[in-house]
Amino acid sequence: MTRWASRRSQLRVDAPRGLSRRLVIASALLALLMTATFLILFGAITRLRDAAALTGRSEEVLASSSRLERLIVDLETGERGYIITKDPTFLTPWETARAAVPQEAAEFRRLGTKIGGEQGKRAGQISSAVTSYLQDFSVPLVTKVQRQPGVSAAASVADGQRRVDRIRTDFDQFMGVQRRLTSRYEQHSLEASRRAMAMAGIAAVASFVLVFVFTSYLTRALVRPVRRASIMAADLARGELGVRMPETSLGEIGVLEQAFNTMARSLEMSHDKLRRVADEQAALRRVATLVARAVSPHEVFEAVAAELGRILAADFIVVNRFEPDRMETVVGSWKAEKNPEAAPPTGSCWSLEGRSLESSVERTGRPARVTDYQRATSGIGVWARTRGVRCGAGSPVVVEGRLWGVMIAFSMSEDPQPEGIEVRMTEYTELVGTAIANAESRAKLTAARARLVSASDETRRRIERDLHDGAQQRLVSLGLELRAAEGSIPDGHDVLRQRVAKTASGLSGVLEDLQEISRGLHPAILSRGGLHPAIKALARRSVVPVELDLHVARRLDERLEVAVYYIVAEAMTNATNHVDASVVRIHLHLDEDVIQMAVEDDGVGGAAVGGGSGLIGLKDRVEALGGTIDVRSPSGKGTSLQVRIPTWTA
Ligand SMILES: Nc1ncnc2c1ncn2[C@@H]1O[C@H](COP(=O)(O)OP(=O)(O)OP(=O)(O)O)[C@@H](O)[C@H]1O
Ligand SMILES: [Mg+2]
To answer: Rounded to the nearest 5°, which phi and psi values hold at 397?
Structure first.
């Protein structure tokens, strides 16, 4: 059985059949009334037809009666005329009547039999009397006179007259009665036709009223609700999910209205659910974007707390980090706008001692929930109780497999928090865990880079000091000794003196070279005087002209100064070595907590980080200090280095 078929059979069982029953009853009533009307009409028409038939028969019998009477009169006057005058012309109508009488008498008898009753009997008697007069009296008399023209027949004529008078008297009586009967039949027929017309009129009006009532009922019970349902279905289709039908109709239409409302409600619920899921996904995406952009963990904590608070309709959210001494620190918090109370402040520390949601999470590493804060004794638990919090749900924050902290959603509502809230929190705590792990990895990487740069700077400084204190001092001593030796060469040894003098000046040259190398390794002027004099010294020594715009009013951390110095030095060297720049512009500006610099030349451009070790070394240095370096070198348009280094990281 298909799904629809089974649903239909279920509807057949479940749905009230009131409307169908009413429709069936109304239709049956209408059919009954129509049938009754037609039966009555049929009866009236039948009666009308019977009355008309009776009238017709009566008129026929009357007509036959008068024809027969005329024939008997013709017989009698014919025979009388012939007998008195012996004129055979009198026999012409007699002959005609004689020929017609048997047939007419039989017809009269037949019609009499048809109408029956007294009149029928009377018709039979009259018919017999006429036939008898013809056969037993008139024909023998005329025959006798024809045979014996001289015979006296005056008595017979008078007898015949008497007999015909008697028959005519019967005829008169018969026709008088029959006329009265005919008039009564006509009256009946008229009445019957009037009755039939009245019945037809009543039936037509009753049918009209019934059809009208039936149609109005159908309109009210069926058409109107169905039209209303179709309008509301159109509204629903347009997205107005709040439309509801008044559940006032009976039977199946009532069921339809209820089903429509149920459908609208479930559509609305599904729509709400979908919107909630979409909101959750959007919130997760926003947090994930923050994590991917590697913003500070603090920013991620605050964003997660706010997003989760809105999604769960919580009153407070806290993100806490577990500390080693059974303490916890609030690292992110949020409160609903309607709450006058503030959330636990970021940075505040709370004890984990006592039975609490956080200590349960800390102990088990699993989500936990508190349904009643009345007996809370832990630090955050007491805070929650005094703020009117009724229940809370917590989910652990795990960073690379180790339990790091807990995120808690507090609710002040009397209703328990929905099932599965911890699972919904898990997706956010996972993102928090990832953000923390990323931040930790980044911090480790930066520290490692900083250590490498520091180690290399330290090595350079040591070599510079060794050169300064060792090789340079010895060269200076050797130079002095050679100058002394030169002075002590006796005259006459000019060649030797010149050689020694040349060696001494060569030694000075080596010393200068060594000092230059030392400056390159670690500029002593930087340690002594700071960025200002060190950069000026660099500019002085530069082959390419340099324009300086320096705004550094104070000394900075040595690592920062060394980095800035090397950036300027490398930019100048590159401008000299790789391009035919006519000028190098150096702009340095120290703000409260960031140093910004721009080094630009007007060379051919095309510089690439990674082409040698210079620019990439600068990148390492700057990033090790938490800064950024941006190299822009479009072909033919010169090169610029834009650098920003926070001063607080150094
Ligand atoms: N100011 C500049 N103008 C044009 N091209 C440059 C500029 N600075 C560097 N370049 C190009 O970029 C490459 C990379 O520079 P980088 O300083 O990293 O290496 P290098 O100067 O070649 O070698 P190193 O600095 O290790 O002695 C260079 O080889 C050069 O081709
Ligand atoms: Mg270089």
So the answer is: -105, 115
Question: Measured in whole angstroms, how far is the alpha carbon of residue 151 from the centre of its chain?
Answer: 129
* Helix (H), strand (E), coil (C) string for 144-162: HHHHCCCCCCHHHHHHHHH
- Comparing CA positions, the residue from 472, 645, 461, 442 lying closest to residue 561 is 645
187 and 40 in a common domain: yes
**Exposure pattern of 614-638 as b/e (b: 16+ CB <10 Å)?**
bbebbbbbbbbbbbebebebeeeeb
214, 30 contact by CB (below 8 A): yes
Residue of minimum CA distance from atom 19 in ligand 1: 612
Q: Is residue 98 part of a domain?
A: yes
Any idea which residue has 């040591």 for tokens? 462
In this structure, the answer to whether residues 222 and 292 fall within a common structural domain is no
What's the 571 CA to ligand 1 centre distance in angstroms? 9
Tell which of 371, 403, 433 closes a domain: 433
Last residue of one domain, picked from the residues 410, 433, 456: 433
Q: Is residue 613 part of a domain?
A: yes
For residue 578, which ligand has an atom nearest its CA?
1
Residues with CB under 6 A from ligand 1: 574-575, 578-579, 601, 603-608, 611-616, 633, 639
- 643: CATH: 3.30.565.10
Q: Which residue of 574, 632, 640 sits with most ligand 1 atoms within 8 Å of its CB, as the best mutation to test the pocket? A: 574
Same domain, 296 and 195: no
**pLDDT tens digit string along 551-584?**
998 999 988 998 999 899 898 889 888 887 899 9
pLDDT score of 127 more than 60: yes
Backbone angles phi, psi at 180, to 5 degrees: -60, -45
Cα separation, 555 vs 535, in Å, equals: 13
Ion ligand 2, residues whose Cβ is below 5 A away: 574, 614
Residues 614 and 544 in one domain: yes
Classify residue 558 as exposed, middle or buried by CB count within 10 Å of its CB (0-12, 13-18, 19+).
Answer: middle
Q: Is 553 helix (H, G, I), strand (E, B) or coil?
A: coil
Contacts of 342 (CB under 8 A, 6+ apart): 335
What is the tally of structural domains in the chain?
Answer: 3
Q: What is the three-class DSSP state of 41? A: helix
Per-residue pLDDT for 493 more than 70?
yes
Residue 3 is predicted with a pLDDT of 52
User: What is the C-alpha to C-alpha distance for residues 280 and 275, in angstroms, rounded to an integer?
Assistant: 8
Domain assignment present for residue 242? The answer is no
Q: Strand, helix or coil at 37?
A: helix
What proportion of the chain, given as a percentage, has pLDDT over 90? 32
- HSE on the CB side for 422, CA within 13 Å? 17
With respect to residue 455, please indicate whether it lies within any of the assigned structural domains.
Answer: no
The band of 16, judged by pLDDT with boundaries at 50, 70 and 90, is: low
Structural domain boundaries enclosing 533? 529-650
- Judge residue 566's burial from the number of C-beta atoms within 10 Å of its C-beta, 0-12 exposed, 13-18 middle, 19 or more buried: buried
